[in-house]
Write a structure and sequence with these properties.
Blueprint (H helix, E strand, L loop, with lengths): L13 H22 L1 H4 L4 H14 L4 E7 L5 E7 L1 H25 L2 H11 L10 H20 L4 H16 L7 H30 L14 H22 L6 H9 L4 H23 L1
Antiparallel strand pairs: 1-2
Helix pairs in contact: 1-3, 1-4, 3-4, 4-5, 4-6, 6-7, 7-8, 8-9, 8-11
Length: 286
């Protein structure tokens, strides 16, 4: 479930995008350094959000370095990193391994199984500082995976399980901001799960794999109904986010929460118009 927590680049200032990318590049280098070059391929902008959010809230010492990139004609690029870069790198690895094994389970993708097993050997590189948090997130992922394998569970219940995972990820410290971060994570996780299920519903129908929307998609107005639910979820996320005393890079974070999070859903809704109409027409004919 990568690629949902991203910026709307068109609405960012140039300097904001440069800062955003610098945190991403810092995360990417951290992943390569600790887990190897193959692991670097899994780096995602979703985890950059985690670094930016926790950095803005807790204001740790952040270092900035400049490196030349061969892929950009040896152009110099800034990289920013701090203690939360390590944490986001751990979460990135954890989710990549989960996604690889999930792809193997659902679609028997051999290369994903091989990649996931290679990465699993690198788990010893997780930061000792966050190992208890990692174990807690692993437990939540197991509950989620078990529910997926069981199948037949309502979309709301599956969304709640994934929301719990995201809540555990953001509520990194047992402090005064624990409740707000947990609630923010819960909302973001529910949103991500529902959009991911919506994106995959026609593919899962064809392949016969689990998707909680398989029956719901037959109802007319399904997309509009889902959009209303997603709006309510993101209203909750926005409310919890605005409670946090974040000043640094708050414009980037608001861009992600208020705009960037919606990009995947709107693209999927545009593409699926005729596809979903077909299912609804077939249901009416029956």
């Amino acid at each position: 479930m990568f690629g949902y927590i991203n910026v709307n680049k068109a609405e960012l200032k140039f300097i904001e995008y440069d800062i955003y990318r610098s945190y991403y590049l810092g995360l990417r280098r951290n992943i390569k350094k600790r887990f190897g070059s193959l692991a670097k391929l899994s780096s995602s902008y979703d985890m950059t959000f985690i670094v930016l959010l926790l950095t803005g809230l807790y204001e740790p010492e952040t270092k900035c370095e400049t490196h030349r990139y061969l892929t950009r004609g040896m152009e110099k690029q800034e990289e920013r990193y701090n203690e939360f870069t390590d944490y986001a790198a751990d979460i990135n690895m954890l989710f990549t391994i989960y996604k690889c094994l999930d792809d193997w389970h659902d679609e028997k993708k051999v290369m994903r199984l091989i990649y996931g097993n290679i990465l699993k050997r690198k788990e010893k590189a997780y930061c000792d500082r966050y190992i208890k948090r990692i174990e807690s997130i692993k437990a939540c992922l197991k509950d989620f995976t078990d529910a997926e394998k069981k199948g037949g569970i309502h979309a709301d219940d599956m969304a709640l399980l994934f929301g719990r995972i995201m809540g555990e990820i953001l509520a990194i410290k047992d402090d005064e901001w624990n409740d707000e971060l947990m609630d923010l994570g819960n909302a973001l996780g529910k949103f991500i799960y529902l959009v991911d299920a919506y994106e995959d519903v026609d593919k899962d129908i064809k392949k016969g794999t689990y998707n909680p929307f398989k029956k719901s998609v037959e109802r007319a107005g399904f997309t509009d109904g889902l959009r209303k639910i997603l709006n309510m979820i993101m209203d909750d996320a926005s409310r919890e986010f605005e409670k946090l005393p974040i000043i640094e890079n708050v414009g980037i974070l608001r861009n992600i929460i208020y705009s960037g999070m919606w990009i995947r859903f709107e693209k999927a809704a545009e593409k699926k118009g005729e596809i979903l109409k077909k299912y609804q027409t077939e249901e009416e004919d029956e």
